[in-house]
Design a protein that fits this description.
By secondary structure, the protein is an alpha+beta fold. It has one helix spanning 5-10, and strands at residues 17-21, 27-28, 43-47.
Length: 48
Amino acid sequence: MNLLEPLTELVDDSDVTLYECRSCGTTLSADTEECRQCGSTEIAHYEW
Protein backbone atom coordinates (compact mmCIF):
# COMPACT_ATOMS: atom_id res chain seq x y z
CA MET A 1 0.00 0.00 0.00
CA ASN A 2 1.22 3.48 -0.89
CA LEU A 3 1.92 5.64 2.15
CA LEU A 4 -0.24 8.46 0.76
CA GLU A 5 -3.31 6.32 0.05
CA PRO A 6 -4.84 6.72 3.54
CA LEU A 7 -4.48 10.49 3.26
CA THR A 8 -6.11 10.67 -0.14
CA GLU A 9 -9.05 8.62 1.14
CA LEU A 10 -9.68 11.31 3.77
CA VAL A 11 -9.92 14.00 1.12
CA ASP A 12 -12.78 14.20 -1.36
CA ASP A 13 -12.20 13.90 -5.10
CA SER A 14 -10.51 17.29 -5.35
CA ASP A 15 -6.84 17.62 -6.27
CA VAL A 16 -4.30 17.43 -3.45
CA THR A 17 -0.98 19.26 -3.37
CA LEU A 18 1.76 18.59 -0.82
CA TYR A 19 4.63 21.02 -0.26
CA GLU A 20 7.79 19.85 1.44
CA CYS A 21 11.41 20.82 1.93
CA ARG A 22 13.76 18.98 -0.44
CA SER A 23 16.52 19.03 2.17
CA CYS A 24 14.84 17.79 5.35
CA GLY A 25 11.35 16.66 4.25
CA THR A 26 9.41 19.05 6.50
CA THR A 27 5.82 19.55 5.30
CA LEU A 28 5.22 23.20 4.43
CA SER A 29 2.34 25.44 3.41
CA ALA A 30 1.89 26.63 -0.17
CA ASP A 31 3.09 30.17 0.54
CA THR A 32 6.34 29.13 2.29
CA GLU A 33 9.53 30.39 0.65
CA GLU A 34 12.02 29.05 3.22
CA CYS A 35 11.91 25.91 5.37
CA ARG A 36 11.33 26.75 9.04
CA GLN A 37 13.41 23.74 10.14
CA CYS A 38 16.58 23.99 8.04
CA GLY A 39 16.37 27.30 6.15
CA SER A 40 16.46 25.72 2.69
CA THR A 41 14.67 27.51 -0.15
CA GLU A 42 14.34 24.28 -2.16
CA ILE A 43 10.61 23.55 -1.85
CA ALA A 44 9.08 20.58 -3.70
CA HIS A 45 5.41 20.15 -4.48
CA TYR A 46 3.55 17.01 -5.39
CA GLU A 47 0.10 16.89 -6.95
CA TRP A 48 -2.24 13.93 -7.17
